[in-house]
Amino acid sequence: MITVNLPNPIGEEHWGLWIALYFFLAGTTGGAYLLSVLFYGKDQGLVRRSALWAFLGVVVGAGLLVIDLGQPLRFLNLLLNGLYPASVMWLGSWFLVLAGAGLLWVYLGPTSRGVQQGVAVLVALVVGYTAVLLMQTAKPFWNASPLLPWLFLASAATAGGALLQLWYPHEKLSRLVTVSALVEGAVLALHLIWTYPAATPGVLALLVGPLAWAFWGFVVVGWGLPLFLERRNVALAALLTLVGAFLLRYFVVMAGQV
Amino acid sequence: MPNPKDYAILFDASRCIGCKACQVACKQWNDLEAEKTKNRGSYANPPKLTAHTWITMRYYEGLKPEGDPYFDFIRGSCMHCTHAPCVSACPTGAMAHREGGVVTVDEKTCIGCRSCVQACPYEAVHFDEAKGVVHKCTMCYDRISHGDQPACVKACPADALTFGTYQEIRAMAEERVRALKERGYARANVYGLAELGGTHVLYVLTEHPSQYDLPKAVREAEKRAATGWLSAGIAAAVLGAGLKFIVERREALKGGGQ
Ligand code: SF4
Ligand code: SF4
Known about the structure:
The complex is a heterodimer of chains A (258) and B (258).
Chain A: H1 17-39, H2 44-68, H3 77-80, H4 88-108, H5 113-135, H6 140-143, H7 148-167, H8 171-195, H9 200-207, H10 212-229, H11 234-255
Chain B: E1 7-12, H1 21-29, E2 56-63, E3 69-76, H2 85-89, E4 95-97, E5 103-105, H3 115-119, E6 126-128, E7 133-135, H4 141-144, H5 151-155, E8 161-165, H6 166-182, E9 189-191, E10 201-205, H7 221-254
Parallel strand pairs in B: 1-10
Antiparallel strand pairs in B: 1-8, 2-3, 4-5, 6-7, 9-10
Bound molecules: iron/sulfur cluster (2 copies).
């Protein structure tokens, strides 16, 4: 039995670092694929390259999920034990499998735009379900506002754009990343205000408590600084945005369990 | 509404003397190991349920608005919900209703994903790190299916716990509230009739549920997930179309293609 317990600042959590890391990997690489299909459909080289990245993101992420299970060797139960569509965890497992297969297909052979867009829908489901998974719980920081999917999708666009920028600096991408980062910041602020009455301890842990390092680290280093650097040093801005995307997933996962 | 013939437990807070006989009996019957605890300045000990503590009594003391002191006790344990969020969230069917409406986890199927832990509004399911599966109250399924009472009910010296069919238990609870109201407890009420499709553990309370930290108006997991999917769908459409519009329009205005 492999159970992983990493040091955590809030004392008690059931989903921790592995889950946050998986959300980050799937969100970022999935976001990059979505953007390349949406904005650079003509550039097949880019689409296929981002499909490879997203495939790796999905595979490594799924590996982290399996490690995180209390009984990793039973992970096939997730897929083979019957149909549980009411369970977001069950649906998400299938989205992962299907998106992974689709991404591999897009990477390996020339595919039509239609196929690539179909796979993009699966990838969007993978990126989006992670937020719905959190919303299905009884934790007010995750479900007292309906904004978590907006936050995760906006963050996937920002971080996915940043990932593309690393090997494909393009003016349009800069604009994309800037706009989606602004949306992401606004959604985050709104989410905190909205959930504050129901999830006061979680919000306070972020603002002034044990998770403040991750929250303010995100705001300053992973969000504000890259916005400022976007026109000055794209590569550095992109790297910081990726760090920020991880911090965001981490503090969202932890704050729900305060 | 639970089936009238289902199993049910009544906890009568107006009769409970806070002696924890139920808590101890549960440990003994279910062979649950002891917890290492600290003195936290409260009789509640351990303060929360764990994988090895399936019932814990909580204590509330203070002064009423009229100036009278109160010292109230409440049972914290699984409520055996009819529309149980833990069951909806489970991706493998390990957490399920058994005959008589009792919710238990099948440890041979459970993969330890902790969806149920996050979904339960009563924090009644917990993850056993050593075994890699979750545990919770089984309503002593091994006893009741052989015609005996749950261990906690049998141990209660104050008649605060009663076991029976849902029909009997519900009638008893309503009768008890009527009697309490007559005796001057104007706010007496039955908790568990409306929550999550009706719970198989009903509480007779002398005060509003919030006085005992009991959640009111808990949403079912299906509804929480449905809100999530809807929000995710809108977010994906709005963000995708919005980004495309903003970014490409700038492009068109500038008159430059890619
Ligand atoms: S109280 Fe929690 S563990 Fe018990 S049936 Fe309801 S949701 Fe499941
Ligand atoms: S931890 Fe076990 S019982 Fe709980 S949701 Fe996962 S598989 Fe089901």
